[in-house]
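S.,

Sequence below, as promised.
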Amino acid sequence: MDDSDPAEQPGGPDLEAARNACPVSHSELRARRAAEDATLADLIDRFAADDHQAFADFYDQTAARVHGMALRVVLSASHAEEITQEVFLQVWRSAHEFDATRGTAMGWLMTLAHRRAVDRVRSEQSDTNRRTAYATRNADREHDQVLESVSEHLEAEAVAACLDVLTQTQHESVRLAYYDGLTYREIADNLGVAVPTIKTRIRDGLVKLKACLGVNAIA
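The prediction came back faster than expected:
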């Protein structure tokens, strides 16, 4: 039995670690990328002709990259997943548009992914802007309603205060007409006075009210 240190043996852990640590040369990296792109381009050609298995293989080899691209742009895992599905649906439908003479398969795919992600960001921003504008309009409307309510309340208080400038008979006639909604005849019957007299009291009372309210509005 050999009791020597495995690290001292040819092909031991140190040599293996050195091999693993050895960086891939640029030429080898380019060769790998070219081979990968050729494979992807071939898959695109195949599923452009309705080869479903080719599309499944293409998806398996590239979905993680598309998702990563989308995630970096939209910063939302759920949106990135939706975008990934949308991109591959677009890829399936537009596979015949891919032209290997104009760029790589991966470049084409990532361009579609980036455009889709940017469109989603713009759409979300537009939706946010619409919601903000809607909220602002509603806030303004509620504010206007409050102002209107306050204004009506103040006007009611002003009218109530101005009623004090009327004579007792004018006050009674105006109150029955405008607060109780009685007709001239009903007011006349209620007060035991002739209808023309009631009309005169209400007319004179309104003149005084208008004058009083006009003074208050100026003040």
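Residues 173 and 191 are 8 Å apart (CA to CA).

Coffee later?
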